[in-house]
Amino acid sequence: MKLALSPDEVAFRDELRRFYRTEIPAEIRERVKYGLELSREDIVTTHKILNDHGLAVPNWPVEWGGKDWTPMQRHIWQDEMQLACVPEPLTFNAQMVGPVIAHFGSEELKKRFLPPTAALDIWWCQGFSEPDAGSDLASLRTTAVRDGDSYIVNGQKIWTTLAQNADWIFCLVRTDPNAPKKQAGISFLLFDVKSPGVTIRPIKLIDGGYEVNEVFFENVRVPADQLVGEENKGWTYAKFLLGNERTGITGVGRTKVRLGLAKEYAAATKSGSGTLLEDPLFAARVAELENELLALELTQLR
pTM score, two decimals? Predict the structure, then answer.
């Protein structure tokens, strides 16, 4: 396995390092470093800077803003972003609905939605989970009934992350309740969360804040041309989306930053005649974590 970067890859990495540390506001990166909450404005500001420089959606098709990068370049792009404490492009847009529209949407849908999705002129949220359809997502009961040139949507979604910030929702709905298996008969709809009949209700978390919501649909009229792909093929598109979502969760760069901070705090914490970082047991635990992180990074590279 190749562990060393080529000269071209080193140059690519160094340019990204310079960009991330000089073009992204330092106060936003500082908030990321210390795990402080980011505002909607922070996320939009960073995403737009990345998009303006062609760095928001490199995994998309080239004709819609993507990059013809090697797998190593894609790794460096994300790893250096995390090491620089730059908020990553909004995942709902960049990793979830954008690739689905790019791969399965009509040309009209692509032209309408991909540019504002890449630029975060539309903030998307994900309408998948329901009170009785979480890990068993195929049991979802939110319905969409065709009525002329529209669908009428009724039902409920839950755990909808950052729906309070969203402009639009990409939503799994049941369009054929009589399908022979529950994975069939599901469609993938796009609609404005400000549409009449949509209600967003926050779910208070244990820390007193909230980032997840309940979303209710009561006779929401959605234009039929906002269907992605074919009717009753939404399960296929959802699997594609979740495959994209799950591939970026290792977060090696983020963990390196957190571990570095932990060592800084430990070095400043008195323990006996020295510091906590000098305590043999604590130092051994840190070393074990560093080894596990290295193993994870090597696995990711492979």
Answer: 0.90
Q: Any residues with CB less than 8 A from the CB of 268 and at least 6 apart, and which? A: 275
Nearest to 147 by CA among 226, 229, 221: 221
Supply the DSSP symbol for 152: E
Mean pLDDT, residues 169-187: 94
Distance from C-alpha of 120 to C-alpha of 265, rounded to nearest angstrom:
36
Element (H, E) at 127: strand 124-127
Rg of the chain over Cα atoms, rounded to whole angstroms, equals 22
- pLDDT tens string 137-150: 999 999 999 999 99
Find out whether 148 and 161 touch, Cβ atoms under 8 Å: no
Tokens of 41: 């404005």
Active-site residue numbers? 245
Grouping H, G, I as helix, E, B as strand and the rest as coil, residue 17 is helix
Compute φ and ψ for 186, nearest 5 degrees: -110, 140
Q: Kindly compute the dihedral angle of the four CA atoms of residues 67, 12, 36, 213, in this order, to the nearest 10 degrees.
A: 10
The pLDDT of residue 296 is: 92
Let me know: does 54 contact 73? Beta carbons within 8 Å: no
Assign 120 to helix, strand or coil. Answer: coil
Give the Cα separation of 134 and 141 in Å (integer).
11
